[in-house]
Amino acid sequence: MKAQGKAYKYGDNVDTDVIIPARYLNTTDPAELAKHCMEDIDPSFAPGVKAGDVIVAGRNFGSGSSREHAPISIKALGVSCVIAESFARIFYRNAINIGLPIMECEDAAKAIRAGDAVAVDFDTGEIADLTTGEKFTMHPFPPFIQQIIRAGGLLNHIANKL
Amino acid sequence: MGMTMSQKILAAHAGLGSVEAGQLIEARVDLVLGNDITAPVAIKEFEKAGLKSVFDKRRIALVMDHFTPNKDIKAAEQCRNVREFAKKHGIIHFYDVGEMGIEHVLLPEQGLVAPGELVIGADSHTCTYGALGAFSTGVGSTDMAAAMATGRCWFKVPSAIRFTLLGKPGKWVGGKDVILHIIGMIGVDGALYRSMEFAGEGLKHLSIDDRLAMANMAIEAGAKNGIFPVDAAVLSYVKARVDRDFTVYEPDPDCSYEKEYVIDMSGLKPTVAFPHLPENTRTVDEAGGIAIDQVVIGSCTNGRLEDLRIAASILKGRKVAKGVRLIVIPATQKIYLDALREGLLEIFVEAGGAVSTPTCGPCLGGHMGILANGERAVATTNRNFVGRMGHTGSEVYLAGPAVAAASAIAGRIAHPDEVIGGK
Ligand code: SF4
To answer: Per-residue pLDDT tens for B287-331?
Structure first.
């Protein structure tokens, strides 16, 4: 699986309260949540982002609350991948469980600039900055997590087994 | 090599003789928790996946606490979905308005958590129950849906950081000040993916309410869980509430910690975390008397009876400063009733405070005290992210109940001694 798009770049500790503010948590509708994704730190994000675009961020992306509404809202916008130096652990599980691709890669997260064209190959774990020509490789997921991803998320994975 | 306390609990629940840091395991869980925000997502996923029944109707807790009593029509619909699910599956521990409380205060109080148990909850502050020697951690709604069906969950076994606590904290220093100090020291990702294991002779000076407040904020250092040894205080708390058997685990003497910190609590001062991260800590003396508009005393961090007693001891016979709004939220129905009977609620109302029924309310900017642009609040809650309590131009300063009460009287961030007079 491959994806390509424009990079939206953010800093360290992007928390789930800014990814999707609590005032919108009175709904579970992905399309509705998507409209407000990132609005407290970047109101231009949700209206501007296109299918395939990637989010690039620093350390501890998705810190704070366990709200799955955060990765859901990102996925609903068509974001193909979140690349960060590190992820907060609940966000990390949630993203895998719902099938939002994430890549932990410090070098790529540091080097890619806002607006760069980025191509990712989920099978090889390769990230390419097409604007600068730089290439990076992320640490591969452990096999167990690859199984969940291949099944299309945790619930499919357990439904297959039940 | 030996195992940490957290690793031992995980190994036992995975049916393994031993586990090591980094290992992926699947383990049996003793309790699965969800609330009025996360359970609706889990229920939707549960039904979409065609799952028919829950693994054990006695081992699921559903607590309607965030936007309840329902703040608007959408919140009401979400609660109704959960209520119907609870009814359909005969969920025993479903808590609605009138019997509910903030989940992380309610579950220990109701005896739903015991030492050595493994609890997951679709709420990041599920880590609170580590105060009782349980392994408890926050997960997402999909994890919750899967665990409701199977009673199992996947985990990556964490390594641990040990915090050895020595000395006796001073008069106005509580568990909240200790944990804020620690987060200030190690940062909001200082314990990312790891367990925070507490130890040391200073623990005997920390009440169960203090420890619950500390374990509650382990997530604010990025930790997977925070855990305390099971001492006499824990045993007497648990035995008054739990009548099932439980196992007490201790870390192996030869287990390894990634890092160790030793903290002398006698040297700590009342501490405040400045906007917009819990790691931006300063002692109250360094806070510079910042003027405030609102004070919130409540939440799963500091909405317990002891917190209300501390706040009342400062507010008794005094008045909230003109122009400051004080909102006090006992965290459960039981705490509300105890505070009522002890006369604490009367003290708050006479001081000019507003007392609310249990709810998360303003802690996450839900309702019951939202901040306008430019407003500042001192709150006994656990997060001060941008927009957490209202407008993105508002600010939240995190503190313990003593500093919060003193600040309400002073109209600015204040040390309790300043309003009480004399040291
Ligand atoms: S009181 Fe605040 S932190 Fe605790 S569960 Fe409620 S919203 Fe979350």
So the answer is: 988 999 999 999 999 999 999 999 999 999 999 999 999 999 999
CATH number at residue B133: 3.30.499.10
What percent of chain A lies above the pLDDT cut of 90? 80
Structure confidence by residue, pLDDT tens digits, A95-112: 999 989 899 999 999 999
The answer to whether the CB atoms of A86 and B38 lie below 8 A apart is: no
Helices (H), chain A: 16-19, 30-34, 45-48, 69-76, 89-98, 106-111, 143-151, 154-161
Q: Which of A40, A144, A159 has the CB atom closest to B387's CB atom? A: A40
Pair B25, B170 in one domain: yes
Within-domain flag for B421: no
Mark yes or no for CB contact B124/A144 under 8 Å.
no
Is residue B149 within 8 angstroms of chain A, CB to CB?
A: yes
Please indicate whether residue B66, judged by its CB atom, sits closer than 6 Å to ligand 1: yes
> Does residue B302 fall inside a structural domain?
yes
pLDDT at A1: 78
Tell me which residue of B126, B149, B143 sits closest to A95, measured CA to CA. B143
* Domain annotation covers residue B422: no
* B88 and B159 together in one domain: yes
| Predicted pLDDT of residue B63 | 98
Using a 6 Å cutoff on CB, does residue B300 contact ligand 1? yes
Residues of A in contact with B49 (CB under 8 A): 155-156, 158-159
CB contact under 8 A, B24 and A72: no
What is the DSSP secondary-structure string of B207-218?
Answer: -HHHHHHHHHGG
Contact predicate B347/B314, CB 8 Å? no
B304/B225 same-domain check: no
Strand partners, A56: A9, A83
